[in-house]
């Protein structure tokens, strides 16, 4: 259904939906013209005043009566009542608001019950240049169109859990209605809506519990679609936009990628970004953006509405591809695997095998340690995996808690991380980048790698302010573990890696099961205390003295080997000594271990803190059983809309 569709942008959108195989309903207040347009487009024309609830209800009922469903709603209806601010009358203001903002609200409200019943739906709201930048003589239109952008963001957040996406498009088109407005030269109306509304695009955007995420079209440049625009409406720079679309990892809006060198990355024949593209990506919300990004009630109000994804992680082993297939069958939404070559098979080879053995589950390295590979190596591997598992790949980077410290090195600096990710991102965009004093580019011919740009969301593991700044600048989200940073709730994609086990009722903390399945995660409290706080921090923990006694038997230059042996997999000699000395009493404090109610409460605490993806690493001899037990508890929150499961 397309409103305001008797002519101009609305009719063009309806016309582009027909080749996509849609049954199209054109809605307009002009009954004669909408009938003419419907005949030309091969659609159904319906007359309605979008500012009147009764008309909206009548039209919606007609569509549902005819087809039994509605898949796509395009809110395009609008009018102009222009004049300088001091000359506008109440009627000029109220009529524009009633059609633009009111019509968008009324039709969306009417469609949502049907979308929810279907478990899917696409809402596409048409905004404009004036809503983003203002235009003299159009203060009423500016308020209405800006309101549509904010409404779209809120609708996206509220409805994502039901498989419904909401996007705003700012088309650049010359129509009769705006012919007298001196903005810029324009070309034809963009066929953006059919693709934004498509099932393929929908999976690319939304948080789905069953459908795989697929990539956007890869020709000519893996961007949203091909159409004619003269410049980006959203950047306001008066030249071609230097930003490039890529997937929103949490599925609320499509977001762009900026060229760090200021190059024009896409031709003038590509789709304009959605209204949210140039506003904040997936970075923390600043105070200036907070009112638009967070529902009433402030940050806490937003956190209460977060639906947390349930994902898993594995310390890369030879059977990890099979375990990821098991996780997919159980219902997990993503599987991360570790980049720890000192104790694991190669992360990229393992992910390639996992891609072949799965169809839906998201996969990716979590986390890559930059110093272990040249950025070209990781870029080429990422491109290959994106080809093997289109739309399912995400990549996380970290400074090397295990991947470097287990080999005797310290963590990399955040300056190095910043430079590395910029080079890696530039390579995937197809740019010429400089690394280690040399200039390079992905030169892969057709058939050797996906066409550039290769678009993949990036998470960054950060605990402190420096890492937070890099994540804000370069990442699509946050990947945290061991401790919850204060800024964890500031990201629209905030993943938290945790260990533990679901204990039976009245099961003691030192049972054989608790030791095997919960012990490796518990041991990280000792490993982390040693690495970040030194011996004094370890001694403060139950069993810490006994743990240090074993570790210090190793030569000074080899103690890191004693610490990281069996890391995330089992208990080493030092861990066993601490456990036997009573250290197990902290099991429920430092891991997600506990009975079902306790684990559920801990997940709720994480969700309330702003975590949007819980990443659970199972341990012990019965990995399948641990995956099932944890998912069973986590998915019990789904009934309240608190977990995507």
Task: Set out the fold topology.
Blueprint: E1 2-3, H1 8-17, E2 25-28, H2 31-41, E3 44-47, H3 53-67, E4 72-75, H4 90-118, E5 121-126, H5 129-133, H6 139-159, E6 164-169, H7 192-197, H8 199-205, E7 243-246, E8 255-258, H9 290-293, H10 298-304, E9 308-314, H11 320-330, E10 334-337, H12 347-357, E11 362-365, H13 375-388, E12 395-397, H14 414-428, E13 433-435, E14 438-440, E15 458-460, H15 465-474, E16 477-481, E17 494-499, H16 512-539, H17 544-551, H18 559-564, H19 573-580, H20 587-590, H21 596-608, E18 613-617, H22 623-635, E19 643-644
Helix pairs in contact: 3-4, 4-6, 11-12, 11-22, 12-13, 13-14, 14-15, 16-17, 17-19
What would your notes on this structure say?
By secondary structure, the protein is of the alpha/beta class. It has 3 domains: 206 residues, NAD(P)-binding Rossmann-like Domain (Rossmann fold, 3-Layer(aba) Sandwich), CATH 3.40.50; 253 residues, Luciferase-like domain (TIM Barrel, Alpha-Beta Barrel), CATH 3.20.20.30; 78 residues, no CATH class. Strands 9, 10, 11, 12, 15, 16, 17, 18 and 19 form a 9-stranded parallel beta sheet that branches. It has a 3-stranded parallel beta sheet with strand order 1-2-3, sandwiched between helices. A 3-stranded parallel beta sheet has the order 4-5-6. About 18% of the residues have low confidence.
